[in-house]
Amino acid sequence: MSKLKTQIDADIKSAMLAKDNVKKEILKFIKSEIQRIEGGLKVLDDNEIIKIMRTQVENLKITPSETSGAEIAVLESYLPKLMNDEQIREKIGELISGGESTIPAIMKHFSQHYKGLVDNKRVNEIAKEVLV
After folding, report:
1. What whole-number distance in Å separates Cα of residue 26 and Cα of residue 43?
2. What sign does the dihedral 92-96-102-107 (CA atoms) show?
3. Among positive and negative, which fits the CA dihedral 60, 64, 68, 72?
4. Taking the model in full, what pTM does it have?
5. Which of 48, 68, 111, 132 sits at 20 to 30 Å (Cα–Cα) from 77?
6. What is the C-alpha to C-alpha distance for residues 68 and 26, in angstroms, rounded to an integer?
7. Taking the CA of residue 16 as centre, how many other CA atoms within 13 Å lie in the half-sphere pointing to its CB?
8. C-alpha to C-alpha distances, 121 to 110, 125, 126, 127, nearest whole angstrom
9. What is the distance between the alpha carbons of residues 12 and 24, in angstroms, rounded to a whole number?
10. CA dist., res. 13 & res. 91, Å (int)
11. Residue 89 burial (10 A CB sphere; 0-12, 13-18, 19+)
12. How far apart are CA 78 and CA 57, in angstroms?
């Protein structure tokens, strides 16, 4: 079982004891999404669970409700902090100085080394700005 899945299970129990319904419900939703995707055939790793959580955060931002803000805060507490634009520019500069001067090469590097830590769309936009 992944470390994140174990943490979610423990936090559901503690939210139940603390009577924190918002936290309990959003974590139970995430757990059910994990189980639905796994379907008894596959075990998700932490990166795949983080992707599920990021998708849910985006969905909550698109269709807000009374508890969306609290639910987003709960989910974001599990997510690694994304690199900011300045950090992305710095890494792209390092790649360019190291000989990687095409967008596909830059994107490949980021997807291999910074998976879950960057917004790939933003990396692409910044790479285009820097390379032009």
Report:
1. 21
2. negative
3. positive
4. 0.76
5. 111
6. 10
7. 8
8. 11, 6, 9, 10
9. 5
10. 40
11. middle
12. 11
CA dihedral 67, 8, 5, 7 (to 10 degrees): 140
Residue that the structure tokens 């902090």 belong to: 81
For residue 1, pLDDT beyond 80: no
Q: pLDDT of 25-61, one tens digit each?
A: 999 999 999 999 998 788 999 989 999 999 999 999 9
Alpha carbon distance 93, 44 (integer Å): 34
Token output for 112: 């291999």
| Alpha carbon of residue 72 to chain centroid | 12
Can you say whether residue 84 is alpha, beta or left, with left for phi > 0 and alpha for psi between -120 and 50 degrees?
A: beta
Specify the DSSP class assigned to residue 43.
-
